[in-house]
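Hey team,

Filing this mostly as a record. A colleague (T.K.) asked me to run one chain through the structure pipeline before their review meeting, and I want the input and output archived in the tracker in case anyone asks later how it was produced. No errors, nothing strange. Just documentation.

Input sequence:
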Amino acid sequence: MNAAGKRMTASSKKVVAGVSDFFFCSKISATAKQVGALVEFAGSPQAVLDKAAGADLIILDLGQNSLDPLALIGKLKANPASAHISLVAFVNHERLDLIEGARQAGCDQVLNRGAFSQELPRLLRGGQ
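Output structure:
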């Protein structure tokens, strides 16, 4: 059972979210509940790395400076235990430096905030 008391199925997706923005935390939590995904939030680079084991998806807010997101992407993709995990990041559309940096670091998908909000149900269900 998850924290909300709902029975998790074998097909439930485990998602690690390096996100601290209250709006996006709420959006991710509500959407995960709707699609039956289990989300664990992580507020530090080490917490993301620690929680990544067994995850199906990692979501990172590139605007969350406390994560040092570009370095974290590199660490996740360099680690054999997490390199295969789908990694999706989002950021304000005007932050071209972070968008390009995330792609170069190995992020699987980089979305602007609006596109991330629209794609969130599909991402949490496991679609790429």
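Quick notes for T.K.: Residues 1-10 have pLDDT under 50 and may be disordered. The helical segments are 22-35, 45-51, 69-78, 96-105, 113-125.
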